[in-house]
Design goal:
binds shikimate-3-phosphate; four-stranded mixed beta sheet; alpha/beta; 13 helices; 26% strand; globular
């Protein structure tokens, strides 16, 4: 097994323009191109395992994808049945959104994923889709992949979701576009809204009123997308925390989406005392700009509202909690248990290994700020756990095992990390 040793860093001041492109927007740009007539043009598509799996599936569904290494163009003449099994890799977003997209497509489709994805819950999309007529099946009555889908006609719906999940919302919006009447989808708290923004930008009839989204079925194909994918705030946030926990350090993270549903973790770090400013540069589909983060002593906070706005960043935000004065509290975050790993237990176990006092709840945990100690932490195959404990290593040194998962979202993570500290890679078993 491979592992990395990260050494404590000293103060730094950096501008970073190469943060990995946004994963959520990259998945959607590839999939939504299949709903357009004409050629969609995507710049800065995330070339990481998760999103390349989605792009491969889009090709398998008959789209013509041309990639010159910089720009990707996608032209589709309707979704076609594939002779191949569609492999979503590690990507929950890929699998759940394809369920919505393929439920009404002509043909039979099989979706699968890696060993981690095949353990993740799918009923949150398969159940509401079945309720409107989708012919979906899978292990444990469509809870677990592989999933099979036979395209069918879908009924109009008014669905009130119990979870604030952009994946569920997006799957249902994609289904609604081909349902037999106007549909509404209501969520308990606003989750990330890229699907609504992008599809509206392509001409879909979608109205958002607070937590309720009204979707009219497509009368014709949509206009093609022309998009430059912004940098991913959840990837940028690793380096935001790096600056926030390193005395006298600062970083400017360039070209990030400033969508409020995505920068909840930056807002939380601000509440902890870090010096953060936002500089809006452009606004097409999404507000995009630079985020500057400067070190300041951190204090504990409670995080219990709008959890989906920072759900992906909670693991590395917890490293900031460990460096803050006082006890930070995370509640209403039960969704963490069904991410790439059970992130409540992977975060808690990792912090305990680093000598930090924590308490674990069903829906969250507390972290008492203290002195992080060097340890060996296993990522459990979860990219965000691997990168979070590597960032902790900037304070105290750290060994982190099982690193390949980082390629699912942030292939140039180590290249950027090496601007901050010394990193040594090993390829043998140390456990
Ligand atoms: C995503 C939504 C979130 C997030 C995931 C990406 C998306 O998941 O955690 O990394 O692109 O829609 P949920 O919708 O399950 O909360």
């Amino acid at each position: 097994m491979s592992y990395v040793e990260v050494f404590p860093c000293s103060e730094f001041s950096l501008n970073v323009s190469e943060i990995a492109p946004d994963k959520s927007i990259s998945h959607r740009s590839a999939m939504f191109s299949m709903l357009a007539s004409g050629t969609s043009t995507i710049n800065n598509f995330l070339r990481a395992e998760d999103t390349l799996s989605t792009l491969e599936i889009v090709k398998n569904l008959g789209a013509v994808v041309v990639d010159d290494g910089v720009t990707i163009t996608i032209e589709s003449d309707g979704i076609k049945e594939s002779e191949n099994i569609l492999d979503c890799g590690n990507a929950g977003t890929g699998m759940r959104l394809f369920c919505g997209l393929l439920s009404s497509a002509n043909g039979h489709f099989i979706l699968t994923g890696d060993e981690y994805l095949r353990r993740r819950p799918m009923k949150r999309v398969t159940a509401p889709l079945r309720d409107i007529g989708a012919k979906l099946d899978g292990r444990k009555d469509a809870e677990l992949a592989p999933l099979s889908i036979r395209g069918a006609s879908l009924k109009a719906f008014n669905y009130e979701s119990k979870i604030a999940s952009a994946q569920v919302k997006s799957a249902m919006i994609l289904a609604a576009l081909r349902a037999d009447g106007t549909c509404t989808y209501t969520e308990p708290e606003l989750s990330r809204d890229h699907t609504e923004r992008m599809l509206k930008g392509m001409g879909a009839d979608i109205e958002v009123d607070g937590l309720k989204t009204t979707i009219s079925p497509m009368k014709e194909l949509l206009s093609p997308l022309t998009i430059r994918v912004p940098a991913d705030p959840s990837s940028a946030f690793f380096f935001a925390v790096a600056a926030a926990i390193t005395p006298n350090s600062s970083i400017v993270l360039e070209g990030i989406t400033l969508n409020e549903t995505r920068i909840g973790a930056f807002r939380a770090l601000e509440r902890m005392g870090a010096n953060i400013s936002y500089d809006l540069i452009s606004d097409k589909y999404e507000p995009i700009g630079n985020i500057s983060v400067k070190y300041a002593p951190l204090k504990a906070i409670t995080v219990e509202e709008n959890i989906s706005w920072l759900i992906d960043e909670l693991p590395v935000l917890s490293i900031a909690f460990a460096c803050a004065e006082g006890t930070s509290i995370v509640r209403n975050a039960q969704e963490l248990r069904v991410k790439e790993s059970d992130r409540i237990s992977t975060v808690v176990n990792g912090l305990v290994a680093c000598g930090i006092e924590v308490s674990e709840y069903k829906d969250g945990y507390t972290v008492k700020g203290g002195s992080l100690k060097s340890a060996t932490v296993d990522s459990d195959g979860d990219h965000r756990i691997a990168m979070s404990f590597i960032i902790a290593g900037l304070r105290c040194g750290m060994k982190v095992t099982d690193l390949d998962c980082i390629n699912t979202s942030f292939p140039n993570f180590f290249e950027l990390l090496q601007r901050v500290t010394k990193v040594r890679f090993y390829r043998k078993n140390i456990l």
